[in-house]
Amino acid sequence: MKSWNDLQYAKQRILSHRQIANGAYILSFKRNFDFKAGQVIGLGINKEIAPRLYSIASAEKAEMVDILYAEKSGGELSPALPLFRSGDEILVSEPFGTFTQFSDDAVYVAAGTGIAPFMSRILSEKGNNPTLIHGVSYPEYFYYSDYLTQKLGRNYIQCCSRCPADDYFQGRVTDYLKQWQNLDTTKKYYLCGSAEMVVDTRDVLISRGVPFGSINAEIYF
Ligand SMILES: Cc1cc2nc3c(=O)[nH]c(=O)nc-3n(C[C@H](O)[C@H](O)[C@H](O)COP(=O)(O)OP(=O)(O)OC[C@H]3O[C@@H](n4cnc5c(N)ncnc54)[C@H](O)[C@@H]3O)c2cc1C
Predict the structure, then answer these.
(1) pLDDT at position 167, please?
(2) CB-ligand 1 contact for 120 (6 Å cutoff)
(3) 218 in contact with ligand 1, CB cutoff 6 A
(4) What's the pTM?
(5) What domains are there in the chain, each with its CATH number?
(6) How far is ligand 1, taken at its centre, from the CA of residue 127, in Å?
(7) Whose CA is nearest to atom 34 of ligand 1?
(8) At residue 50, what are phi and psi to the nearest 5 degrees?
């Protein structure tokens, strides 16, 4: 984990902080830096707690920077963050990270808040004709789904592991990829989520014939 001494950072005033699902929030502050879609910031509430990394979910040129985050039970920062309101100050580092090189016709595979770097790309209008496969436990965690349905149409695939109804693919993204008839081994695949999700997804893709070099990942640890 990085410490604040490793980062260039400044105080930022929260402009908006919305709960969008059970234990999930979008925190926004004014953008006063340039970044590339896919990059992260270090974020914190004071210098005693080490910064945690969060992908930027908003567009490169948007006025505000949006961070989509979920509370981790037992975590140090994420359960404390929702107590901060509009007008309160947080610490935010300069953006950094290399999960920024994407091909056209790419397949994005995200679990939970791992959708954030892909949202930044899509909202920034970068990359032609992406397919997005998003896996969540319950439907309320299909963040941005209205926008994505309209924007991506059939290229937006929702996988829900604990959904009662038949509105979505029933299962995880790995289950979807195992049986996906249109899986194209010539495309590039970009994965974002927990270490377990990334490893399992990569294994499935390789078993289906996608070359190792065509798979890129950002791991949320
Ligand atoms: C590149 C990158 C990008 C990320 N982007 C996002 C994002 O966009 N959105 C998002 O929600 N998250 C993102 N994350 C995850 C985020 O950085 C935090 O890890 C997450 O919010 C949890 O932080 P925390 O301080 O609440 O939990 P931590 O205090 O870091 O704890 C994490 C988990 O470990 C457990 N734990 C803590 N200490 C111990 C211990 N001693 N023994 C056993 N278990 C323990 C906790 O119970 C908790 O479940 C990203 C991570 C990385 C690396």
Answers:
(1) 81
(2) no
(3) yes
(4) 0.96
(5) 4-93 (2.40.30.10), 107-220 (3.40.50.80)
(6) 29
(7) 75
(8) -60, 150
Q: Hunting for tokens 């496969």 — which residue is that?
A: 133
CA distance 173 to 178: 9
Mean pLDDT of the 201-217 span: 98
Give the Å distance between the CA of 72 and the centre of ligand 1. Answer: 7
The Cα 66–Cα 11 span in angstroms is 16
How far, in Å, from the CA of 186 to the mean position of ligand 1?
34
Q: State the Cα–Cα distance between residues 41 and 7, nearest whole angstrom.
A: 10
**Mean pLDDT, to the nearest integer, of 87-109?**
97
Question: How distant, in Å, are the alpha carbons of 37, 85, 97 from that of 100?
Answer: 6, 31, 8
Of all protein residues, the one whose alpha carbon is nearest to atom 9 of ligand 1 is: 69
Between the CA of 64 and the centroid of ligand 1 the distance, in Å, is: 24
What is the per-residue burial (b if ≥16 Cβ within 10 Å, else e) of 99-130?
bbebeeebbbbbbbbbbbbbbbbbbbebbeeb
Task: Please tell me whether residue 185 adopts helix, strand or coil conformation.
Answer: coil
* Residues 119-162 pLDDT 10s: 999 999 999 999 999 999 999 999 999 999 999 999 999 999 99
Atom 53 in ligand 1: which residue has the minimum CA distance?
220
